[in-house]
Write a structure and sequence with these properties.
Blueprint lengths: L22 H27 L32 H15 L1 H15 L8 H30 L7 H33 L2 H6 L27 H17 L3 H4 L44 E5 L4 E5 H6 L3 E5 L12 E7 H7 L9 E5 L8 E4 L1 H5 L4 E6 L2 E2 L9 E3 L12 E6 L9
Parallel strand pairs: 1-10
Antiparallel strand pairs: 1-2, 3-4, 4-7, 5-6, 5-10, 7-8, 7-9
Helix pairs in contact: 1-2, 1-3, 1-5, 2-7, 3-4, 3-7, 4-5
Amino acid sequence: MNVPHVTVRHLPPGPWRSPLRGPWLTSVFGLVLLVGIPLVFVTGLLSYAAYNPDLAPINDKTPGKGLFGFYLFSWPTDPYWLYRLTQGVHVTLGIVLVPVLLAKLWSVVPRLYTLPPVRSVAQALERLSLLLLVGGALFEFVTGLLNVQLDYVFPGSFYPLHFYGAWVFFFAVVAHVAQRLPRVVRALRSREFRAELRTNTAGTRPEAPDDTGLVSSRPAEPTMSRRGALGMVGLGSLALLVVTAGQSIGGSLRRTALLAPHGRNPGSGPNGFPINKTAALLHVRPQDLGENWRLVVNGNSRRVTLSLADVRRLPQHRSALPIACVEGWSTEDQHWEGVRLRDLARLVGFHGDPPGVFVESVQLSGPFRAVALRDNQVRDPRSLLALRVNGAVLSRDHGFPARVIVPGAPGVMNTKWVRQLSFGATTFGPRS
C-alpha cells in the first residue's frame, strides 16, 4: 500500500529570516532558563509553605491542593531573615529572567508555525507540551508581575491561579527538557562560546540547516552578531536587576529600586519604612483604634480583656526583625517593642510550652484579616505583640495600637490592628 508523503513546510521568507536563529542560540537561552526557572519554582513553593497552609483553613489560600502539598512543613523562625531571602530571590530572579524568556520565545517562533501543525501522534504530543510550556511561562510571568506591581487584579484569587499554574509550567519544563536535552548538548558543543563572543556582525554566519526548523532557508544579512544579541539580553536582565533588587537588599540600594511596588521613599522618622496596605484602604475605622480599643486574649478555659494601658503595663521586650512581603520588597531590621506572645499565652493559663494562636484584626475588609500562627512561632522570644517601633508608638498605618511581629513570617502574617488572640488549636475552626 502506498503511504502518502507528508511535506513539512516552515515559514521563512517573511519575518523568520534572522541569521541568528538556530539551535545554538536557542540552547544558550534555554540553558540560562534551565538554571533560573527551577530556582524560581522552588522559592515559590517555599513562599507558599511560609504561610503554614496546612495549619488552618484561614491560612490556606489554595484549598484542595492534595498531593501538590506533599512538601509542606512547619515554617521555622530561624534564621529570622529566611522569608526575606527566599521571596526576594523569587521575585527578583523572576523579573530578571523576563528578557531571557522573551529572547527564547523569539528564537523558537518558527517552530510554532511549522506546517502541517500535526503530522503524527508523537508530534502532536510534542506540540501539546510546547503549548503548555509557552502558555505556562507567559501565564506565570505575567500574573506574577501584575501581582507584584498592581496587586490583586485577577478573577478569583491570585494564590491558586499562580500555584497550579506553576505546577503545570514546571511539568511542561521537565517534559521539554527530557525531550530536548540531547539536542541542546549537541547544539552547545557545535560552537565555542568564547569564539561567538569574539565574532562581530560582519563575521556572523547562519547555522547549518537542520530538522529543528529554526534555521531559515533564506537567511537575511545580519544586522547584529550573536554576541550583540546575548549582550542585549544580558544588559536587559542587568538593568532589571538594578531597578528591582534594592527593594529586597535595602540600604542605599533601595533608592535604585524603581520597580518597587510601594515606592522607594516611604517617609522619614521611626515609622518611615514601607507599608503594604494602609488603614484607609482596608477600612479600619478610627473608633476601633481609640480609647475604647480592647485586646481580648482567649485560652482553653480563660478569657482576659486588656486596655491599651493594661498591655503597656505588661513586661515589655525588644526584637530586631524585618518586614518581608510576598511582593518581593522587605525592610531592614526594625526595632520593635512589646509583649511576648508566649507571655500573653501565660495570662490565659498556658504555663508550659504555649500552643499556636489565632490572631484577629479590627480591619473590616481585605485578605488576611485573621491568621493562625504555629506553636513554634508563639514560643520564639522574638515574637511580639508590638506597641512601638524604633522608639516610637506605631503609626496608624503600621498597626496602631498593636500588631504582631514574628521572625521569618511573611508580612501579611504579621497582623496589624490586633483585637483578639485565641491560643489553642481548637480556636482555628473546622477546615472548610
